[in-house]
Amino acid sequence: MTQLATSTAAQQFDVGCTIEVENTFESLHAHVELDGDVIIEPGDSVRVHGEPVVVPYGEKQVLRRTATVIRAGALNRAWTRATGDIEFMELLEFSFSSGSEL
Questions:
Q1: For residue 101, what pLDDT is reported?
Q2: What are the residues whose beta carbons fall under 8 Å from the beta carbon of 13, sequence distance 6 or more?
Q3: 82 membership: H or E segment, kind and range
Q4: Does 98 or 12 have the greater pLDDT score?
Q5: Rounded CA gap, 102 and 95, in Å?
Q6: Which residues pair with 18 in a beta bridge?
Q7: Would you say the C-alpha torsion 71, 72, 74, 80 has a positive or negative sign?
Q8: What is the full DSSP assignment across 5-71?
Q9: Which of 7, 35, 55, 81 is the 20 to 30 Å CA partner of 44?
Q10: How far lies 7's CA from each of 42, 44, 67, in Å?
Q11: How many whole angstroms separate alpha carbon 91 and alpha carbon 68?
């Protein structure tokens, strides 16, 4: 039982991160950069803690937060690798157009 708890604890950890959110005419984006040399692999999850970030139009904010990285197990990682290309292809079905007919 103790080994299971230790194994589970090793599967997730907290790390500092920088969040950049921009809501301007030029760009609408949100980026999270984890501190250190943390490598996110297929199936892993990252949860950023804190209140939701609301950036009014025309502004950009850079914030510091804590994030929890949750490592995927072997089965979940394999499943994500096997199905990732299919899910990516679904994204390609969407397009943005100017409204004119092709």
A1: 58
A2: 68, 69
A3: helix 74-91
A4: 12
A5: 12
A6: 33, 64
A7: negative
A8: HHHHHHTEEEEEEEEEEEESSS-EEEEEEESSS----TT-EEEE-SSPP---TTEEEEEEEEEEEEP
A9: 55
A10: 19, 16, 20
A11: 27
The amino acid at 35: D
Please state, as a whole number, how many other Cβ atoms lie within 10 Å of the Cβ of residue 63.
15
pTM of the model: 0.67
Q: Which residues contact 58 (CB under 8 A, 6 or more apart)?
A: 23, 24, 25
Q: Are 68 and 91 in contact (CB under 8 A)?
A: no
In this predicted model, what pLDDT tens digit does every residue of 3-15 receive, in sequence order?
Answer: 333 344 448 999 9
Alpha-carbon distance of 40 to 49, in angstroms, equals: 17
